[in-house]
Amino acid sequence: MSSLSFPSVYFFRQAMMILPVFFILAPFLLPGLVQAQSETSDPNFVGPTRPADDLIGDLRGDIAQLNRLKTTDPAELIGRVIKIVLQVVGSIALLVFVYGGIMWMTARGNAERTGRAIKIIAWGALGVAVILASYTLVEFIFGTLE
Q1: Per the structure, how many domains does the chain have?
Q2: Which is higher by pLDDT, 12 or 87?
Q3: Domain-embedded: residue 109
Q4: 58 falls within a domain
Q5: Cα torsion at 39, 45, 47, 51 (round to 10°)?
Q6: Residue 121's domain spans which residues?
Q7: In a domain, 62, yes or no
């Protein structure tokens, strides 16, 4: 027989159901209880110590920070997207090389698997050549647009 009696097991189960709810709701309920300052040190506070014009100026700065790309030029944005796509494709090409190399190393002299691995590596090399050519073309086109 267990050392815990029926009521204590029931209480333990009830507590284990209530505690997660408390921990989920506590951040939303408790901050209001601990904010007891009489004067505010919040820079976003608008009241008798800070005019609303300052807040509007701060909002303009905050809105400018929303543009994480730091550009409004469509050509530059398209160029960045193309560069990111080429980087991802280059990473995939690296994975193709690794896959072909592992396949070749684990072929154990099997001519069919070795031939397939060599074809994978050759097509990966061709893919890298295409990636480099497209990168060069993109750099040339967007270099002439600037």
Answers
A1: 2
A2: 87
A3: yes
A4: no
A5: 130
A6: 74-145
A7: no
Angle formed by the axes of helices 111-145 and 74-105, nearest 10°: 170
* Nearest 10 degrees: Cα torsion 27, 28, 33, 36: 90
Domain membership of residue 49 (yes or no) is no
Distance CA 10, CA 81 (A): 59
Tokens found for residue 46: 């608008």
What local confidence, expressed as pLDDT, does residue 100 receive? Answer: 94
46 pLDDT exceeds 60?
no
Q: Residue 66: pLDDT band by 50, 70, 90 thresholds? A: confident
Cβ neighbours of residue 145 closer than 8 Å, sequence gap 6 or more: 75
Q: In terms of domains, do 81 and 140 share one?
A: yes
* Percentage of residues in the chain having pLDDT higher than 70: 58
